[in-house]
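Example complex used in Figure S2.
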Amino acid sequence: MQERKGRQEEYMKIICEGIELSDAVLKVAKACSTKTTNPILECVKITAENDSITLIATDGEIAIQRKIKADVLEEGAICVPGKFFSDFIKKLENEQITLATEDGRVIITYADSESSMQLLNADDFPAIDANIGEKKVELLTKDLKELIAKTTFCCAQDDSRPVLKGVLVQTQEGRICFTALDGYRMAVCRKNILGMTGDIKIICPGRTLNEIGRMLGADEDRIEIFVQKNMLMVSIDDTVLTSRLYEGEFVNVSNIVPKEFTSEIVVEKEALDESVERAAVLARTDKNSIVTFDIREGSMGVSSNTMIGRVNESVKIMLEGKDVQIALNCKYVSECLNAATDETVRIGFNGAVAPCVLTPAEGDSYLYLILPVRTTA
Amino acid sequence: MQERKGRQEEYMKIICEGIELSDAVLKVAKACSTKTTNPILECVKITAENDSITLIATDGEIAIQRKIKADVLEEGAICVPGKFFSDFIKKLENEQITLATEDGRVIITYADSESSMQLLNADDFPAIDANIGEKKVELLTKDLKELIAKTTFCCAQDDSRPVLKGVLVQTQEGRICFTALDGYRMAVCRKNILGMTGDIKIICPGRTLNEIGRMLGADEDRIEIFVQKNMLMVSIDDTVLTSRLYEGEFVNVSNIVPKEFTSEIVVEKEALDESVERAAVLARTDKNSIVTFDIREGSMGVSSNTMIGRVNESVKIMLEGKDVQIALNCKYVSECLNAATDETVRIGFNGAVAPCVLTPAEGDSYLYLILPVRTTA
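Predicted assembly (754 residues):
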């Protein structure tokens, strides 16, 4: 063993089922970096110990690991190129596979065939600490799905204020609240929790939440989110995802949402969504993508007007307060309406230049705030 | 009427069902040009006459038209922007729609709403002659599907020899034969025909055939292909596609296919395909994308060797003739194997530098010829 360490080489030999290896590689390889100058972040690390192997990949922010059963003939760790190993093993689902190191390569033996891949140095792979358990919050899987689906699309996409690429996740009075904003619109969603140890207030990357969303299982399952310092961890069906959290201050959102409105409407979501979608067909051809709401007693006009043509529709509403005209980016309106899950929604306005706020007709389980577009017309 | 003509304006007024208009627009808009400097080729022309409207679009090469029932209140013709009209009408499937011209626009009235789009001058729309019937060939829909699927992927993709972007379609002794080649490989497929008037020998754009392939209906339906001068026409369920044909001489392919081979193998297609796919995972990382066949009595080696690793598999074969080693582009081999529909295929070789030929184990219903890659090794 000492001689081996002296040669800085990696040893490992295992036998496992192709279907299990393939499933595990596909799951963890999602965390491989696709645009990096550091090749180790494109790798999957395979560690053989006792009677199992653990696969892990990370892009430096998110790490995903999964343990599967294997005959371990020689314990050790190797780093294989993630994409190629994953593409290759995917095509060996019906075979029993032997992985064995030899001269800096891994020899992959299956059926009558023997292939090989170059290895990277497993010592260069970043250490991933999945021992995260200081604080915990537990909720229903379907509620976490909804929290993610209703907020992450409002995260900023560019790097100008990195903290806005994250979602503010905090527990408050027996509920968990997700908040995302990009400077033009904001999403807030709240759900009851089943239990917790210690209040949580973190900024979690939107990407991390979307990746968790894709991993989530049956709606009625319980899911635990663990937090410690600047790390988060969830474990779903033997797949463990850990993620760095963003440090720094999130925008103080407590004063952003107006408490009162000069105009408030209740409208059938589907009807408004369809009108906005049609207006958007033309609005999208213009760089401002403006859809205009002309709100009056009993009905609202939904219109767009571009070089190619104009859409002018009428949607039934119930109005409390003053008539109002407002110009909004049709993409933001469409995305909020698509994320809303109630048949009727309430939208509050304070004139043409103040943000409008969309909520369910009853309750405060979610909220969207959209800044209007200032038009010169 | 004379005054109207004097003003060069278009008049038309019709009422129709959204579901029918939407279906028709979606079908014909496929022929709209997406990259043109001539805006009229991005349009759908709608002509109202008697008790129906005819929609037509063309990119200058392919034209698709479809006639649907409508209440024609005023006969005439208009040109609407294809993509926007199509996207918009698609969202009005449940409505009754009125189209009426006014001041160079079309007013679209539905439910309580009224929208409009700018029109282009219908007189600028190219004349499309669907009166094509000099020659005719009739075959089963499933046979035409197979002819298209087995050949068009071998058409040249670039413009260096435009005629190679087409498929040579010719009738011979009660059969129809499709031939496509791109300078590196060739596909030939033959099917029986049900009837014909006059022998056909045309070069049909691969795009046209792929578009026809997408329109084709039930396998057992009969389909007629009409040809006149440099035009082709098919009519499927009231949708009529016409296309220009390529003029010029196709490559003389009669001497390309070798009649005899020094080595001939019979191999299970699926097993070879899977091995080639795995070899391709690594081969694709290299610009030559080489998979090597090492053919010996009883088995063939399928291998690829790149910086990242090597794949080395063994596939059972029956060999007649000499051992042979040959290097091929894995993409060409994969695509041919995927298009082949027999469980076992025959591949003939004449050494390492001559083209190899893949056919069904029995019969000559299709054939692929692939040029080897010359390796310096």
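Chain B has three domains: 2-124, 135-244, 263-370. Residues 1-8 of chain B have pLDDT under 50 and may be disordered.
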